[in-house]
Amino acid sequence: MTSPPSRLLALAATCAVVGTLLLAAGQAVAGALVVGAGIGIAVVAVLGLRVDRNAGRAPAVGYVHASLVEALAGAIDAKHDPSGTRLTRRRTWATQLAQAVGLPASDIEAVRTAALLLDIGQLAVPDHILAKPGPLSVEEFHKIRIHPQVSADLISGVPLPPNVAGFVRSHHERWDGKGYPEGLAKEAIPVGARVLAVVDCYDALVSERPYRDRLTREAAVAVLREEEGKSLDPAIVERFITLLPTIDAGAGPAVVTTDASLGSIVSARREDVALFEISQAISAGLGVEGTAQLLAQKLRRVIPYSSAALYLHDPEARLFKAAFTEGIEAEMLATVQVATDAGMFGQSLREQRAVANGDPQACMDARAAAATRLRSSIVCPLYGEQNELVGALAIYHVTPGCYTQDECRLLEMVARQAGPVVSHALQLARAQEEALTDPLTGLPNTRFLWMHLTQELARAARQASRLALLLIDVDDFKVVNDSEGHPVGDLALRELASVLRQSVRPYDVCARYGGDEFVIMMPECGREEAEDRLRHLQQQITRHQMRLPDGRSFTMSVSIGAAVFPRDGDSSEALLAAADARMYQDKHRWREQGERRPAEPMPALPRPPLHKM
Fold first, then answer.
1. Which of 282, 290, 316, 542 sits at a 20 to 30 Å CA gap from 527?
2. Is 0.85 surpassed by the pTM of this model?
3. Residues 203, 552: Cα–Cα separation, whole Å
4. Which residues have CB under 8 Å from 422's CB, separation 6+?
5. Angstrom distance (rounded) from CA 305 to CA 299
6. What local confidence, expressed as pLDDT, does residue 395 receive?
7. For residues 316 and 600, what is the distance between their CA atoms, to the nearest angstrom?
8. Three-state DSSP string of 347-409
């Protein structure tokens, strides 16, 4: 049974580690207090050891050192494995391999201790690098490389068995001399470090990592054999592989017991890493939907939810409207519109904070409320850099009252990062829409038309499909402007745009080409279909009554020319030229006839020379 002084030493070590973490994170006051508490506990522990010794019950010095080392290493490794099984496993394997290699007793003890301390230098490596799921950059890899030297420096002044610091420093040296920190090769690497390198490599292979799943024993052994003579000592690799059946036979079932304090360390680390990943993800400039999708994916790592939604604020309607939903009943949530002063949304705005465990049904219509399985939620407002209301972030769960204030705190931290990003994405979307939209008619403008026409022509060429263009010009539009004024002319163009918008297919593009001209781009449309659409449009426009503010009404007629890819050209310019020529033929025919009659089949034009796109 562990004596009270020994337990105090273990607690002192844990305080030292936690204090160091706080100092590294910039929490100077909290870090200093925790470190100071650790020093005070250590003094009490030493006095306790002296009393025990005077009473004839003094534990062995080696036992005290071992307890202190285990407590220190366990607190650090809790970030990766709160159960402590990883450290125990690695120490057992390293000790058995050191014995099998024939190391002297002092080196075996040094290997046994060093196996616990290999990673304490990772305190100097940011958590987001250690937990990065993808490949490291050159700069990140250089940051990782410092940890063996940091580990050795941290323990160099501690009264541990000889060679521990040297073994720890050199366990990332490679047999071929390409390792770090000193670039040692072959026998120049301490044999204890070579033992630890084999064990550390195998343990990493059979463990979960952020960048890959664990390997099977057979796959891990295959990797070890590949590394013989490269990163690892071939003789020690073969000895370890020979030992594996014995190691596996004596392993027994793993008993996972997580101390509450170590569990807190794990939780804090996961929170830090997740928040860092969220910050990186939502700053990638992916637009509102892309940002929300990544946000929901990363958010699940720190807050459990059944559904998540991003609502945008409509200041004119004073509503929150769903812009992105994910999880169960996502389709239903996508239809939700909530008044800014209603329920949890209103409370979160008034208090400018996250509000937990309100009833989601209160913010739904009667039909959705009766059908939903969602029973609890957190709603948090989103603000931009100028403190303008952008929207709200909401998460839902099927379990009633399942959220805590700690989870509200986390969502508020995420919302503080997400608000400005969503605001910027909305501003960019509005700027892009304005740049590609005709302000008078609300239709796409010429810039938008050229962008999409180029893409559709390339697609049609790849798939050997057809594409039709209709060029539309209002007949005698100048007369309308001259007789009624430009406001009436603008009204007529808006009315015409409305008719055209309602007459096209969902995947067609109808754009204002300039003045009183419009273009309709119709993918997967051949000559006969283009002629039918042309006649139908002329009939729809001729029948449409355009009403003026004074009660009068009038009708317009249009001339239309059509061109089809690839028959009439294989470029935007060629197709528009062909459509323009046919449009003027139609207008000339109308003027000669004096009235609009059903259009004749497209007249033949001189076939333009084809050229490569």
1. 542
2. no
3. 86
4. 288, 291, 292, 310, 312, 382, 384, 390, 391
5. 9
6. 92
7. 49
8. HHHHHCCCEECCCHHHHCCHHHHHHCCCCEEEEEEEECCCCCEEEEEEEEECCCCCCCHHHHH
